[in-house]
Amino acid sequence: MSLTQQETLAGWGNYPFSSSYTIHPTEVQEWQQAVQQGNFIARGLGRSYADQATNKNHVVGIATKMNRFLHWDAQQGILQCEAGVSLEEIITVFAPQGWLPMICPGTKFVTIGGAIANDIHGKAHHVDGSFMNCVLSFTILLANGEIVTASRTENADLFIANFGGLGLLGVILTATLQLRKIETTYFRQQSVKVKNLDEMLAALEKYAHYNYSVAWIDSLAKGDQLGRGVLTVGNAASLAELPPALQQKPLQLHKKSVLQVPFFLPGFVLNNFTVRILNKVIGFVQNSPKEFIHYEKFFFPLDAIHHWNRGYGKRGFIQYQFVIPEAGGEQTLRTIMEMIAKSGCTPFLNVFKKMGQGQGILSFPFAGYTLAIDFPVTKGLKAFTEKLDKVVLDAGGRLYLGKDAMLEPAMFQQMYPQFTEWLAIKQKYDPENKFTSDIGRRLQLS
Ligand SMILES: Cc1cc2nc3c(=O)[nH]c(=O)nc-3n(C[C@H](O)[C@H](O)[C@H](O)COP(=O)(O)OP(=O)(O)OC[C@H]3O[C@@H](n4cnc5c(N)ncnc54)[C@H](O)[C@@H]3O)c2cc1C
Q1: What tens digit of pLDDT does each residue of 210-268 get?
Q2: Domain FAD-binding PCMH-type spans what residues (predicted)?
């Protein structure tokens, strides 16, 4: 295999960039050849935020051409497909037949391989758990060239370690997934405006019986208004409860978006003033939703504008997402929000929710509060996130590795003390360290 195509790659945050050799396999043999040579990582649609799917001066295999559906059991809703299939492709084919993916993150442009490697979660984590819960089994190409099946009963250690394993244990080739039966592609939702953090936490409890729940928090609110925002909750809408106009086409698909940010906006576009206006607009839109809303707007509002990440300009941005236990969580949230307000690092989007029980080894979620904050990359940002890391760690929390751009190994190891268990599995299946990536090197996982 000759490697001539060198590409500058980044994650969704356009930070950091790194130059890797890319290949686009269409057959298993191409993956096998590439893996044989070592220093290799698979990549899906590049929706991780930072260096999860980049591999400086080494090889990145882009999985999106391995996107065939292999078998469909229409009775049980069980789909076998290649790992380069995206949630969007699954939705497009199966939603009109009355099935949706069980777990949907904030964008439908993620592949099944990427969803497994980051063990992604959605707005119903407290009910459905993370992506592992919809995967019955997968096949994976190992460092020794073998392809094996992993499930809860076969190579169970490999199965579990891949959820949150950042692609560092092999190339996931195919997966067998449980989809969810739906009567309609609509959701019945309710929005609750809250004035501050106390009200937000009270509202989360009050509306905990809803399956889906997520809050937007005004990133610039301070003092008595700290934590101000809108909590949106909802459930899948049944056919009977849809208004007559929507009952005509209850399994309506999303329309392809035509809007996009065509180029990187200049860095000065996002400043305190524009972020304040944008937050007002978001607050207004969140607080005035229709009762019945299509999955596209319910799950994937950000997909409405392609390349919205360019809005942060060429400097890029990070998404800092942490989870902390509920006990003592309120004070920690307050401390972090106050630190942000004083920091001079203008946060843009703050997304808040309560998570349910965790699972896996390096999988991110556990029961508690999670907050995701977008920060444009600025000179003082790393020093600031290091301060936040300490607060998160002291509260018993950790960062989402699928989004992290800045963690240092010592902090990572304290946040994920179970990393030694994961490394033992890595050693068993990849003793020569053939699977490497930029985050793998940064966190000393490869
Ligand atoms: C707008 C937006 C909203 C988001 N919302 C959420 C959310 O609500 N919840 C959540 O959990 N995440 C969320 N994410 C993050 C996203 O779901 C994850 O980063 C997901 O893993 C991206 O999938 P991908 O196909 O783009 O993978 P990539 O980003 O390309 O890769 C991610 C990881 O998967 C590995 N990988 C990819 N394919 C394979 C394969 N075939 N075999 C082995 N390893 C592989 C890569 O090596 C890498 O480590 C969001 C991202 C964006 C941009």
Answers
A1: 999 999 998 888 899 999 999 999 999 999 999 999 999 999 998 887 666 666 766 66
A2: 14-182
Question: Which pair of structure tokens corresponds to residue 309?
Answer: 């990440």
Tell how far the Cα of 168 is from the centroid of ligand 1, in angstroms: 14
> For ligand 1, is residue 121 a contact (CB within 6 Å)?
yes
Residue 431 lies in a domain: no
Distance from Cα 337 to the centre of ligand 1, integer Å: 27
In a domain, 245, yes or no: yes
Q: Does residue 53 sit in helix, strand or coil? A: coil
Alpha carbon distance, N-terminus to C-terminus of the chain: 23
Residue 289 lies in a domain: yes
The answer to whether residue 392 is domain-embedded is yes
Q: How far is the CA of 226 from the centre of ligand 1 (A)?
A: 31
Q: Is 366 left (phi over 0), alpha (psi -120 to 50) or beta?
A: beta
The total of structural domains in the chain comes to: 1
The response to whether residue 47 sits with its C-beta less than 6 Å from ligand 1 reads: yes
Domain containing residue 348: 186-408
- CATH number, domain containing residue 296: 3.40.462
